[in-house]
Design goal:
The complex is a heterotrimer of chains A (305), B (380) and C (264). By secondary structure, chain A is mainly α. In chain A, 75% of the residues lie in helices and 3% in strands. Chain A is built from 13 helices and four strands. In chain A, helix 4 packs antiparallel against helix 7 and helix 8 runs antiparallel to helix 9. The N and C termini of chain B lie far apart (49 Å). Classes of the chains: A mainly alpha (305), B alpha+beta (380), C mainly alpha (264).
Chain lengths: 305, 380, 264
């Protein structure tokens, strides 16, 4: 009696395990072989030596990390560090400006009639459906020397004559804002939509000024969405490749360009891999911080996932 | 919303559906009797859902599994349907052991609590689903759908989408979808629990009529003892994965086998028997005389006093047990009046039909008469 | 009174933001009809750049590469992602944390790290074994990798939204496992599968960075062609091909708006 029971249970658990394997294994194996394995290989490359044609060679070393910190054949130079700092700086500025633009927009959408809201969201999102290269190309057209915008800036004395707004750091920042605005509007909109208006009314009822009512009743409720947006914007912005390459005109490179350049034209794979590890670290720190803060605030995770 | 509550499945309908005819003709009652032997089921390491259930259900019976949530009634039903495999024991339907038979090969259909109507299909395609899976040709399917739709008086709905139906309509469609396959056994998993009270009691009567007309074996799961009593030929009361009692509604209500059954059937007047001799028992209410048939060798147990058997008033017939009580609370229920009385510091509930006799007031001293024939001993 | 002013200010800001979002795209479309090849001044309407597109074999082959890549990768991702999404649903009571991490990995990994990892891997495996010659094949592999999670999550959330007893009802009504897939699961999933396919397709066409690093000499897609044309010096033809891609997105947007309308 006990044996039939055990046999039946074992048979059904084997069947369940086989089902799990059959459905999940192809996809899991695909991601393991074509993403996890390559990423691990890339990490290994970071600890190898640079060989001919930029390919990695065997003696393991920390050479590439030293190079990333600026120590080269000709002694220390700040070039790579400048790139790192510029990446960080651009990320912070762009994320901050995206918040400033997205916050009122997300709020405005929630105040509109329910039937318009999906369409308004769609209008915000549609430009990001077009190819990143094309969007950036559009800005190149807009900001090039001789265009109305450049002439206007010139007449105000912001830029030297015949220089144009592009290529420049300014153009890169603008491109980043343009690129990431929807990523901030969506989670903020979700937060505003769930906003508990009773809290705002309670604050007003308790004699809060509009500014105080916003700060104590509205802002905390949108914080989770805001954080989700910051992660969605800051992580990809830090590793951005296309926008600095096209709008920065080689003068305003970011970490993504530093890494990518090591893999094209036979430069230095280990150095690029070291840069990639830095980017991965930034990504995972960002996600981890997000999860921690999200858990404390409650609901933050759901916004991201 | 039109719930079609006034339309009933009339017993005298001239149009008898093919489903009904076939069931009556075959009349091979053994084909749909159910035998469960030593059914065991555990979930995880230590949740015992069924602890060796033995149960026989006759062909053509309206059989109800009754119990609180977590008593194992739903697990038992799912094992009958084949949606859950027992860890041990066997299940025989119509003389055939189907313990290992997958659900799609069992001649058993289920009406689910959530109805589980397919949202991507119309009512017609929902009704025809089982026939289609069995490979019945399209022409026959259409004919059967038309018949069954007429049988449940929802013929006008077959083109609708499922989300356009009301709760009562969904319930009937779910029933029809299961009946159309002419299963040997129909399982119903709390099919009425999502409906409001009025519709619910109407559908209880309807369901019972359908079962009688088709002569099909119905196994019905509910946690509502009133529903179980109204509908069932026999009831099995379950608790903790064990069957506490099997019997007709009257047996289960009037002579509950255990204190659990008594409480679950709504009885409150249960008193521990502290001593017993011949047909006398000692309880917290005092010494009471029982009918000679209640005499057992058991010293302990419970004494059940059904509230509707109590007589309140000065004149008590010869041979009655008489208690002196005080009215503490009176609830007016229209057709009847409920009293909460105390005898000493022990509470006793009494129910009197509202026949216009004297109504007792809160604070009144009353004599409570208990006929020995109405006292029931209940095991632990 | 003050509330009205706030609302009006916000409305103004909204229109400004829309201008900001659509101006770059509008400029591209406008200049694609420019008669002259100046990038700074519009001199008259003409279709010459569109005509030039049709006679440019490189662009045509880039277009066909983009389409083949998008369709093939989306179909593969649909099959694999659908399976994994169903597996996640069916076994959702188990501890599948590792699987969730694995699924989210392609989403959270920065594009550039994703691209160079695959490139470095493919190059080395190719050197050792001759497999994975960079080209459309390696691009399909890379695209499927980032499409799988989206398909899996769409399928999973569709299943989670269903009454779980529907699966049992199908079996109870005599559906064999195969018939259950055919007559219940696939029809119920159909809307989810369609939107998963379109999302995969869009992601594939939209991708530049990962394609760029996994492509071979013969397998340039439209974004890669545009990129190299921009790097070589702007040719007005880019405006035309870019406008066509913007047009395709606009059509997709209208389509999704209509679908949205019908659902509500």
């Amino acid at each position: 009696m006990a044996t039939t029971s055990r046999l039946r249970r074992r048979y059904s658990s084997i069947r369940e395990a086989r089902h799990l394997l059959l459905t999940v294994a192809p996809g899991a194996a695909w991601i393991m072989v074509f993403l996890v394995l390559p990423s691990l290989y890339l990490m290994a490359v970071a600890f190898m030596t640079n060989g001919p044609y930029g390919l990695p060679q065997m003696p393991l070393s920390l050479e590439s990390f030293k190079r990333l910190a600026g120590f080269g054949f000709l002694g220390w130079s700040p070039g790579n560090l400048y790139t790192l700092l510029r990446s960080l700086w651009q990320t912070i500025i762009a994320t901050g400006l995206v918040v400033i633009v997205a916050y009122p927009i997300a709020y405005y959408i929630t105040t509109c009639r329910a039937k318009w809201r999906p369409i308004m969201l769609l209008l915000v999102v549609v430009p990001s459906w077009t190819n990143q290269v094309i969007r950036t190309f559009g800005w190149m057209n807009l900001l090039a020397p001789g265009t109305p915008l450049s002439s206007f800036a010139e007449s105000l004395g912001f830029i030297a004559p015949n220089m144009g707004l592009y290529p420049s750091s300014f153009a890169v920042t603008l491109g980043l804002i343009y690129n990431f605005l929807p990523f901030m509007v969506l989670p903020l909109y979700a937060a505003f939509e769930k906003l508990d208006l009773a809290q705002v009314e309670a604050a007003q009822d308790l004699y809060a000024t509009p500014v105080r009512a916003f700060w104590y009743a509205v802002f905390p409720q949108t914080l989770a969405g805001l954080l989700a947006g910051v992660v969605l914007v800051a992580i990809p912005a830090f590793g951005m490749y296309v926008i600095p390459e096209l709008l920065g005109g080689g003068k305003s490179l970011m970490l993504g360009n530093l890494v990518a350049n090591q893999f094209s034209g036979g430069a230095n794979w280990p150095l690029g891999a070291a840069g990639a590890i830095l980017m991965l670290l930034a990504t995972f720190i960002g996600l981890f911080a997000m999860r921690r803060i999200g858990k404390r605030l409650g609901g933050g995770e759901q916004v991201v996932i | 919303m039109n719930e079609n509550v006034t339309e009933e499945i009339s017993e005298t309908s001239t149009q008898r559906p093919a489903v009904a005819l076939k069931q009556e003709q075959s009349a091979n009652h053994d084909a749909s009797s159910i035998e469960m032997r030593r059914l065991h089921k555990r979930f995880g390491r230590d949740t015992v859902a069924l602890d060796g259930v033995d149960l026989t259900i006759q062909a053509g019976e309206f059989f109800t599994l009754l119990g609180p949530s977590g008593c194992g009634k739903t697990t038992l039903l799912r094992i009958l349907a084949g949606l859950e495999a027992p860890d041990d024991g066997s299940l025989v339907i119509g003389g055939k052991d189907i313990t290992e038979t997958p659900p799609h090969k069992r001649s058993v259909n289920t009406v689910f609590q959530s109805y589980a109507l397919f949202p991507h299909l119309s009512v017609r395609d929902n009704l025809a689903f089982g026939l289609k899976m069995r490979g019945v040709p399209a022409e026959q399917r259409l004919q059967k759908v038309a018949e069954i739709a007429q049988f449940i008086k929802l013929g006008q709905l077959v083109e609708r989408r499922v989300d356009q139906l009301s709760g009562g309509q969904r319930q009937r469609i779910a029933l029809a979808r299961a009946l159309i396959c002419e299963p040997a056994v129909l399982l119903l998993d709390e099919p009425l629990s999502a409906l409001d009270a009025g519709l619910r009691s109407q559908l209880q009567v309807e369901l019972k009529r359908v079962q009688k007309r088709l002569g099909m074996t119905f196994v019905f799961v509910t946690h509502d003892q009133d529903e179980a009593m109204v509908m069932s030929d026999r009831i099995a009361v379950l608790d903790g994965g064990n069957i506490q009692q099997v019997g007709t509604p009257a047996e289960v209500y009037e002579r509950p086998a255990t204190a659990f059954v008594a409480r679950f059937m709504g009885h409150e007047n249960l008193y521990a028997i502290t001593a017993s001799q011949d047909n006398w028992v000692e309880t917290s209410l005092g010494r009471l005389l029982l009918a000679p048939s209640e005499q057992t060798s058991a010293q302990e147990g419970w004494l059940l006093i059904r509230p509707e058997t109590l007589e309140l008033g000065q004149d008590q017939p010869e041979g009655y047990n008489c208690l002196q009580g005080v009215v503490k609370e009176r609830l007016y229920r229209g057709s009847r009046i409920e009293y909460r009385l105390t005898v000493g510091d022990i509470t006793l509930m009494a129910v009197a039909s509202n026949l216009g006799q004297r109504i007792h007031h809160v604070g009144d001293q009353v004599t409570i008469g208990v006929c020995p024939e109405d006292l029931v001993r209940v095991a632990f | 009174m003050r509330k009205r002013t706030l609302h009006r200010t916000l409305r103004g800001f909204w229109w400004l933001t829309l201008l900001f979002l659509y101006l770059p795209l509008a400029v591209v479309v406008l200049f694609s009809f420019n008669a002259s090849n100046s990038a700074a001044s519009f001199t008259g309407v003409s279709l010459r750049w569109y005509r030039r597109l049709l006679s440019n074999d490189v662009i045509l082959s880039a277009f066909s590469n983009s389409m083949v890549l998008a369709v093939v990768s989306s179909v593969i991702a649909l099959v694999i992602g659908c399976l994994i999404g169903y597996g996640m649903y069916r076994h959702r009571h188990r501890k599948l944390g590792w699987l969730i991490v694995l699924i989210y990995l392609p989403i959270v990994l920065p594009d550039i790290v994703f691209g160079i990892s695959e490139m470095a891997f493919f190059v080395q495996v190719n050197r050792l074994t001759g497999l994975f010659q960079p080209g459309l094949g390696t691009m399909v592999i890379a695209h499927v990798t980032f499409q799988i999670p989206f398909v899996a999550l769409i399928v999973y959330s569709r299943f989670v939204g269903l009454d779980p007893t529907l699966f049992e009802a199908a079996t109870d009504l005599y559906a064999t496992p195969a018939k259950r897939v055919l007559h219940f699961m696939l029809p119920t999933l159909k809307p989810a599968l369609i939107s998963a396919f379109f999302l995969s397709f869009t992601l594939s066409v939209d991708d530049f960075v990962i394609s760029f690093f996994t492509s071979g000499p013969e397998s340039a897609t439209l974004p890669i062609y545009i990129w190299s044309a921009i790097k070589k010096g702007v040719s007005p033809e880019i405006n035309a091909i870019a406008s066509l891609m913007i047009g395709a997105v606009a059509i997709a947007a209208v389509f999704s708006m209509l679908v949205n309308r019908r659902q509500t």
